[in-house]
Amino acid sequence: MIKVFFLIFEPRATWERIALARRSFGFVMCVHLLPLLLLTSAAEGWGLARWGKWQPRFEKFKEHSLNTIISFEAIQTILLLLMVLLSALILLKVSQTFHNRCKYVDAFTAMAYGYSPLLLAHLMDAGPTVSPWTSWTIGIVLTIWVLYQGIPSVMQPDPTHAFGLYLSAAIVAVLTAGMARLLTALYLLGEVDFHHSWLTRRFPDLFQ
User: Fold this and answer.
1) For the chain, how long is the longest CA-to-CA vector?
2) Fewer CB within 10 Å, N or C, the chain?
3) Residue range 165-183: average pLDDT?
């Protein structure tokens, strides 16, 4: 997790070390991405269990059962993992239009580390009155900043295509992360009731 702060405050040097290390897909997934996801989910789950979540629409703190919190955090973790995997795939396909010959592991490395500030910002969601959109906005701004140095270092596009590929990566990050945040924020803010959804009818013990 310490590397996240280096990416924010010393992005160029940190990305250069990441690019030179050329870690495998499994290493980036198991050593960096999954621990960060589990840490932030555990912190948010602890906050939900201790304080609940303020729902402005109903002007009250919503309390959640332990089973509901575990189910929500598990679903959110899977959703965020899919967000990274899908973003990397889209970035790879976009890079190919710029005649870039990088592999999926390169795109995955760029997005896994690039999303680090956004995932770290989820720690703010442990606060009972912090809006999900506040943490997302801070996280996505830092993610866009971090990707500016990361895309050229890891993807190594032609200099004439570097900025275009960065803009594409930024757009992909905003759209995919925005969709993931929308789904989870609707539940946390009480706009969606999963107790009466298809998901709960299919898995009746999920949000009990």
Assistant:
1) 54
2) C
3) 96
